[in-house]
Amino acid sequence: MKSCLIVDDSKVIRKVARHILETMQFEVTEAADGKEALDHVAQATPDVILLDWNMPIMSGMDFLRAYRSMNAVPSAKVIFCTTENGIGHIQAAIDEGADEYVMKPFDRETIESKLQILGCI
Amino acid sequence: MSIGEAKAYRTLSAALERHTGQTVPTNRHWRIDMALKPLMRRNSVPDLQTLAALIEMDTDPKLTRACVEAMVNNETSFFRDQPNFALLAGPVLDHIRELRSDTKRLRIWSAACSTGQEAYSIAITILENAEKWRGWTIQILGTDVSATALAQAREGRYSQFEIQRGLSVTHMIRHFEQQGEEWVAKDALRKMVTFTEHNMLTPVRHFGRFDVILCRNVLMYLNDDKRTHVLEAIAPSMEEGGLLMLGAAETVIGQTQKFRASRAFRGFYELTPGRQGA
Fold this sequence. Notes:
The complex is a heterodimer of chains A (121) and B (278).
Chain A: E1 3-7, H1 11-23, E2 27-31, H2 34-43, E3 48-51, H3 60-69, E4 77-82, H4 87-95, E5 100-103, H5 108-117
Helix pairs in contact in A: 2-3
Chain B: H1 3-20, H2 30-42, H3 48-57, H4 61-71, H5 82-99, E1 105-111, H6 117-128, E2 137-144, H7 147-155, E3 157-158, H8 160-164, H9 169-175, E4 176-179, E5 182-185, H10 187-190, E6 193-197, E7 210-215, H11 224-234, E8 238-246, E9 259-261, E10 268-271
Parallel strand pairs in B: 1-2, 1-7, 2-6, 7-8
Antiparallel strand pairs in B: 3-5, 4-5, 8-10, 9-10
Helix pairs in contact in B: 1-3, 1-4, 2-4
């Protein structure tokens, strides 16, 4: 079973994303900010991380920098999933090592197609 | 559902079938309701029964056309059915490239292309392999029955929802530019595709012959007779050695003798020798 860590400070978004991913047979864990997510990945590497940008304590970008500097093997695929929809943010995320980018609001088809692109399903 | 409502659904679904061949099963009549609500609001039509009566009288061809266009299933996405599309983008195009190495000419038809995502996906595949196709004359034609869908296709303009479906972020920022909430195909991409109106139920116009014809998720909405009709209308447009790609749930088997399954490429079909027809 593939695994996904959902990192988002919105409980509602985590719930919606969890539902979508569980129907695709993913084992899902959740974190409410970047720091909590770092604690998770220190324990186990998920196949995919669905990552929000703006969160308290530690942002998605700070998490991504910290995570990529860990050089974890195997490394999780990181999909930004955010309302920061400008090209500048998208480019910055790719430059920092994001594998894919989802602009909120999202639906099942969008998440599914991004996971397919990354070869996760 | 009242008798009047049931009759209205039948009238509207018959209009759709008459103009496009698409059928709407009774258990999906809710789609008609959803699809026509914006049009009814725009035209101050109070309910479906009134709209059905107007369509039945057929006094306003513009309204009938708008109504049919609204009901046509325009579902599509970039690189739809990714495993199948990967077969097209890789082994199939490589095969055609070898086959046409003398003429260096490649022609692809995206039939019933809706808002153009399929045609642009092929164009992106070519652009991403520009070195491989250097010196080739490449033509990609997208056709659809819906003028509204084609207008969007020609502009190459997609909403945030549409652009994200099937398109990787790398391809998105390389081939599209952001304009407010929308994403618009860059000139290099748009110039690769030509769009024109065509109803799959009418004889194929002089589009010439194609090396690859994509007719995906079209037959599934048609009855058996119309499936045969469409496949047989396509056959004369197929270049020798060319391949037809259908949707994952579609086949030529039992529909026509003009095509047979390709032995080399699963999900693709080739002309049966001697059966192309004029």
